[in-house]
Amino acid sequence: MEVVIITNGQIDNLSLYKPLMQNKYIICADGAARYLAALNIKPNLLVGDLDSISKEDLLWMKTQQVACEKFPSRKDETDTELAVEYALKLKAQSITMIGALGSRQDHSLANVMLLYKILKQGANGKIINTNNEITITDNRLDIEGKVGETISLLPLTEKVSGITLTGLEYPLENADITMGSTLGISNVFAKEKATVSLKEGVLLIIKSKD
User: Averaged over 140-159, what is the pLDDT?
Assistant: First the structure.
């Protein structure tokens, strides 16, 4: 199963992601209902404490007969994490988050860290916005991109060992990157397909258009 989570960060134009949402299980995290209601896109599930959804959007959800998982406002998880946990309960193999980045840097970073949770549950996680695509690996990942596009690698563990990069302007072979190093920043696609592999650790991978 493939799941798309719409969360209440910054989404410049949700209509751009309509093709990505087709035939996917869509989970709306609380206030992100404003984006879906504006485009009349019915999600499969609304989840959260419902503290940021407007009365109008909540009414629209009810009119559309969208299933709702409501949680108390005093809770340990963010609405986005609740959406991720629900997706994992569905045994989703792919979880894409839209709207996971925004002006609240605490939420943005927390959502990036949710990729680690998804990875450790054996699923593929991704965050996308207008200019970035963020994913994570602890093994090997094939990544498609346009020649000249920027790709950066950041260690999420103290040390990432045995990194090999192919298809990029600055290749690596069996290299190590330690947390706090900027060695992996601003590499460039030399081919339309690149491969990132590693032997130990976890890498955050960010493909950027700008």
Answer: 97
Instruction: Give all domains of the chain, ordered by start, each with its CATH number.
Output: 2-130 (3.40.50.10240), 137-208 (2.60.120.320)
What would the two tokens of residue 101 be?
């980045």
Take residue 12 and report the two structure tokens written for it: 């410049």
Single out the residue of 164, 165, 205 nearest to residue 185, CA to CA: 205
pLDDT band at 153 (very low <50, low <70, confident <90, very high): very high
Distance spanning both ends of the chain, measured CA to CA: 31
* C-alpha 138 chain-centroid distance: 16
Mean pLDDT for the stretch of residues 29-37: 96
pLDDT digits (tens, 9 = 90+) for 75-85: 999 999 999 99
Residues 160, 198: contact at Cβ < 8 Å?
Answer: yes
DSSP result, 156-172: SSSEEEEEEEESBSS-E
Query: Collapsing DSSP states into helix, strand and coil, what is residue 33?
Result: helix
How far apart, in whole angstroms, are the C-alpha atoms of residue 206 and residue 82? Answer: 24
What integer best gives the mean pLDDT of the chain? Answer: 96
Residue 175: half-sphere exposure toward Cβ, Cα within 13 Å: 16
The contacts of residue 135 (CB under 8 Å, 6+ apart) are: 115, 124, 125, 126, 127, 141, 143, 204, 205
Buried b (16+ CB within 10 A) or exposed e, 53-90: beeebbebbeeeebeeeebeeeeeebbbbbbbebbbee
pTM as predicted: 0.95
